[in-house]
Structures are given as C-alpha cells and as structure tokens.
Amino acid sequence: MGKILVTGALGQIGSELVPALRERHGGAAVIASGIRYRSVGAVTEGGTIELLDCTKLDDIRAVVEKHDIETIYHMAAMLSAIGEDKPEEAWELNFGGFANVLKVARRRDCAVFFPSSIGAFGPSTPRLNTPQDTVQRPTTIYGVAKVVGELLADYYAARFGLDTRGLRLPGLISYVALPGGGTTDYAVEIFYQAIREQRFSCFLRADTRLDMMYMPDAVAAIMQVMEADAGRLSHRNAFNVSAMSFTPAELAAAIQRHIPDFAIDYEVDPLRQAIADSWPDAMDDSAARAEWGWQPRYDLAAMTEDMLEKVAAKLGAT
pTM of the full predicted structure? Predict the structure, then answer.
C-alpha cells in the first residue's frame, strides 16, 4: 500500500484511525487532514497534517497530488443530531464532500473507504437482526447522505473499477475524542459523568436499544476490510458490522458493577429519541464475518471496564 490520506482526521474516528494506520504503515505514509487545525496528540505530532476542506474539489486534488496518495479513508462528516439543525450544510459536506473524493480518486486510481452507518436505515427497516440487504429509507439528512454515498461508491466500483469499500458502523464509544453531535453520544458522555459526579441524565429513554461498538473494534474493522482479499468480497461497500447491542439502562447497570453509587435519570430529547427510534436494535453482520473474517473483541462488560479505566486516567481520577 502506498501513501494514505485520512480526511476528518481530527474527529471521533480519525483521531484513533490515524495512529493505528501510522503504526501499521509508518508515520510518513499516512497524511492526516482536517478543515481546521487543533492539537490532537498522535494525529498532529506523529506525522504530516494538511488543512483540507472536502467540499472544495481543488483542495482534495491538491493534497492527493502533492503526496501521491493511493488510498483515501474519508472520515469527514457532520453527525446526525447536528445535521438536523443544519441540513443543507450536512448534505454539502456528507454527500458533496464524498462525491468530490470519488472524483479525485477516479482520476488518480485511489482506493477509497466510506464509513456508512446504522443511520442509513429507517423506520421501515427490520429492527432486529437487520439484514445486510434490506429496505433503508432513512428519515434524517445524515442517513440520506449515507445511503446515497453507499450507492455512489458501488457505482464507481461497477462503472469505473474503483476499489471502494465501506462499513455500516453502529454507535461508537471512545475515550479519545469527545462526543461530536451524534445520537449515540450518551454512551460516551455517561462514562465521564459517572467518574466526575456518579450520576448522569440521559437524553434517550431507558429502553432504547441500539447497536454499539468500542472504537478499537471499529478501527480494526476499517483496516481489515481495506486489507481484505477483493476476490472474497461480494458486497464491497456498506458491510453491516456489530459488536454489542444495549439500552441506556443496561449500560448504567454495567457501570454500577464498578461504581455502585452511580445513578441515572432520563430527560428525553425528542429529536434524538426520534432518530434513535428509526434505527435498528441490532444488525446482522454475517456477511462481514463470512467475506473477510470480521470478529469483534469487546462486548458490553469488557468495553465498560476499559472505558472506566481509560476515562478515569484521562480525568486524573485514578
């Protein structure tokens, strides 16, 4: 693999994907990029970083040509809840930015990774064991852009032979990056509040079941699908991947096993609750397991224990 570009490298996924890629391929081989500069440890100090606005085609072309990029991990996006407040801006970035990446990738013959999401599904999708191939019909601009991105990636693969691959990621839990306006952000915020105040007010109902994944598993899945033998891939784009499915009440109970005095209450945000209610309870990821050997490492108990340890250390509470 030649040089790699990661867009949105300072975001939730990028801030952990970039160091993992640099460890695998070497610091000089991975170019991080973001729309504005801020210091994020290993991302900004471990190698080259470029300012790049993905809504500007010339910006992408210039960075790809400057560094002779061969693979693009396109992580730049506006998340679901923020997108509902800024639908036009969300469409311009989430779809327009990806369309620009594909245009440049086609000319330069770059492989491309596209992160789709459980947000690509909608209320008419089967909620339990959501199939790999099923009706989608999302009700958010975030989800609409993800569905169109999936289709466009498939089109570029079929029409131009471009090596495009992607995953439908569930809600992601990370101690490295703070929440950024997603519907599943409660599952990150809860750990900080559990350690700081031993209580948390959740914006989703106690019984809201959603697919989730710990970030180390998500980063591993992204890298694995890009390194998989193309001859084994029937789907190539938008593989369902899952690791665990739980409710806020179940997550709170898992935390209480380590912090017995932790308490949770619920102040439901109607917007984010409506978004969550339109998403699956749990996805069927058998295609990913069969085609490229997907296997998560973390379940709810293991993720909870590691998150509490890492967040406590981050907050100086150990």
Answer: 0.95
